[in-house]
């Protein structure tokens, strides 16, 4: 009897999880090259396979909008950032840099033990390399729009 209940719960949870995860099709690169004030970028085109109501989107990850490096190469800590250096090539912005994270406020051990499961999962996800230079922008743009992106 208990085994049947466990199997039923497992089956229901499996169905719920499989219904919430929508497969996406990420193509290699977008044909369109976007001209910014600092250089040209190319992103990635994303299609949602199960829901045809959702439009295709172009994603551009890690576009630098400022820099913590000064004119002489020194770090501008606690100072206004400078403009990012310009690039002459087409920058590949199709991959998200998930290995580096901006510094986050850490929960103390006592708060972590008293927190709910969502806070614990969020906190566990933030235990990775952190860097103060977080001056990058991620853009999610409808691929069918006729408006300027940047």
TrEMBL record:
<dbReference type="Pfam" id="PF00135">
    <property type="entry name" value="COesterase"/>
</dbReference>
<feature type="domain" description="Carboxylesterase type B">
    <location>
        <begin position="32"/>
        <end position="143"/>
    </location>
</feature>
<dbReference type="InterPro" id="IPR002018">
    <property type="entry name" value="CarbesteraseB"/>
</dbReference>
<keyword id="KW-0732">Signal</keyword>
<protein>
    <recommendedName>
        <fullName>Carboxylesterase type B domain-containing protein</fullName>
    </recommendedName>
</protein>
<feature type="signal peptide">
    <location>
        <begin position="1"/>
        <end position="22"/>
    </location>
</feature>
<comment type="similarity">
    <text>Belongs to the type-B carboxylesterase/lipase family.</text>
</comment>
<dbReference type="InterPro" id="IPR029058">
    <property type="entry name" value="AB_hydrolase_fold"/>
</dbReference>
<dbReference type="InterPro" id="IPR051093">
    <property type="entry name" value="Neuroligin/BSAL"/>
</dbReference>
